[in-house]
Each structure stands twice: as C-alpha cells, then as structure tokens.
TrEMBL record:
<feature type="domain" description="GST N-terminal">
    <location>
        <begin position="1"/>
        <end position="80"/>
    </location>
</feature>
<keyword id="KW-0808">Transferase</keyword>
<dbReference type="GO" id="GO:0004364">
    <property type="term" value="F:glutathione transferase activity"/>
</dbReference>
<dbReference type="InterPro" id="IPR004046">
    <property type="entry name" value="GST_C"/>
</dbReference>
<dbReference type="InterPro" id="IPR040079">
    <property type="entry name" value="Glutathione_S-Trfase"/>
</dbReference>
<dbReference type="Pfam" id="PF00043">
    <property type="entry name" value="GST_C"/>
</dbReference>
<dbReference type="InterPro" id="IPR036249">
    <property type="entry name" value="Thioredoxin-like_sf"/>
</dbReference>
<dbReference type="InterPro" id="IPR010987">
    <property type="entry name" value="Glutathione-S-Trfase_C-like"/>
</dbReference>
<feature type="domain" description="GST C-terminal">
    <location>
        <begin position="86"/>
        <end position="220"/>
    </location>
</feature>
<dbReference type="InterPro" id="IPR036282">
    <property type="entry name" value="Glutathione-S-Trfase_C_sf"/>
</dbReference>
<comment type="similarity">
    <text>Belongs to the GST superfamily.</text>
</comment>
<protein>
    <submittedName>
        <fullName>Glutathione S-transferase</fullName>
        <ecNumber>2.5.1.18</ecNumber>
    </submittedName>
</protein>
<dbReference type="Pfam" id="PF02798">
    <property type="entry name" value="GST_N"/>
</dbReference>
<dbReference type="InterPro" id="IPR004045">
    <property type="entry name" value="Glutathione_S-Trfase_N"/>
</dbReference>
Length: 220
C-alpha cells in the first residue's frame, strides 16, 4: 500500500488530494514541524534530504511533488480521470506542473524567509536590522516579481477554466499549494479569476476528504 509521509502544513497535502481524486487506498505516517518550522529529523530515515512530500510504494521511495504526482497519476489513474487526450492540453498541464515549483514557489519561499528576518531565531539585537533589510528586499525585488507572476496566472485563468485548458488535471493539483501561498504571501490580493479557480478546487469533494485526512493548511 502507498504510504504518504505527511508533514503538517506542507506540500504533501497535494499528494493526499490526488489520491482522494483517484480513490486509491493509502495510509498516512504523520510528522509535525519543529518549533523552527523545519521538518523533524525522523523524515531523514525515509529520504536523505528529510523533506516532505515523500511516499513509499512497493519498496520505492519517491520524493519531489511533481515526480510523485506524475508517478501516482501514471500508475493509478486506471479510469482516466485526470488523463488528457488533447496534445496542447497535455503540454499545458506539463508546463504548469513544473512551473509551480520551478518558477513560482522559490519566490514565495524567499518572501516567507525575508518576512521573518525580524523574528526568532534571529538574535534580538539583530532583529531591527533584519526586519528593515527583509522589508527592503521584498519591496525592491520580491513583490515586483510576485506581482508579475500573479498577473501571468490571472491572464491564463481568464481564458481557461483549468490550468491545462478545458479539463481538470494534475496541473491543478500541483498549482493548488502555490496559489494558496499567493493568497497569504502575494504582493497583492488574488485577482478574480485566480480566486474563482481556488474556490472551485476547494469545493471539490476529494479536496474536503484530503483536508479531513491531512488537516487544514495554514500558510502565512
């Protein structure tokens, strides 16, 4: 059976959602973030990097969100629930699958890091300097870059109901985490079509089942 090594408030929530969409049996091994917000050392017993998400399946250890999602969809989507028959939609799906972690998430992670430079574990004497520096980097660079990405996503969803095009796909599952992060860490509020897409995925029955299994995501 598939085991999802699930870290709270992490990208592994997407893996649970995919498995619920496919209605594939799985079990969860739960891990809690430490006070530093890092994953616990116990995850290194599963994968050397000690990161989440990671799954085990038939003696295979598979890490990285995109790789996990492609593996699970390729192996377990027996009823073709998420497979795309249109070549252009397949290309769009693949693009957004890799864009999520390759282009968008690095900016959002940097924004999170720089927003915390005035807080522990930064030594208290350095926090005023850290806070000022962090705000400067966000205002001078990160917020502008993130706003560009927000507009890019909004323009795409203005003419496509789903990220691949006319059909729900693994691209929507992969993009769920960065769009949720955008809602809390973005340079501006989510624009209408992006917000509408987020509301649409959050209304899916499989989404609610995944939340019931893995817990609510709290991104800040």
């Amino acid at each position: 059976m598939i085991t999802v090594h699930h870290l709270n408030n992490s990208r592994s929530q997407r893996v649970l959602w995919l498995l619920e969409e496919l209605e594939v049996p799985y079990q969860i091994k739960r891990y809690q973030r430490e006070e530093s917000m890092l994953a616990p050392e116990a995850l290194k017993k599963v994968h050397p990097l000690g990161k989440s998400p990671v799954i085990t399946d038939e003696n295979r250890v598979i890490a990285e969100s995109g790789a996990i999602i492609e593996y699970l969809a390729g192996k377990y989507d027996k009823e073709y629930r998420l497979k795309l028959s249109d070549v252009d939609e397949e290309l769009q799906s693949r693009y957004w699958l890799h864009y999520a972690e390759g282009s968008l998430m690095p900016l959002l992670v940097m924004k999170l890091i720089f927003s915390r430079m005035g807080k522990p574990p930064v030594p208290w004497l350095l926090r005023p300097v850290g806070a000022a520096f962090g705000k400067g980097v966000q205002k001078g660079y990160l917020d502008k870059q993130i706003a560009t990405h927000q507009q890019f996503i909004e323009q795409h969803l203005a003419t496509h109901p789903w990220f691949a095009g006319q059909h729900f796909s693994i691209a929507d599952i992969q993009m769920s985490f960065p769009v949720q992060a955008l809602a809390t860490r973005g340079a501006t509020e989510l624009q209408p079509h992006t917000r509408g897409w987020l509301e649409k995925i959050q209304a899916r029955a499989a989404w609610h089942r995944a939340i019931a299994q893995g817990g609510e995501l709290t991104l800040s």
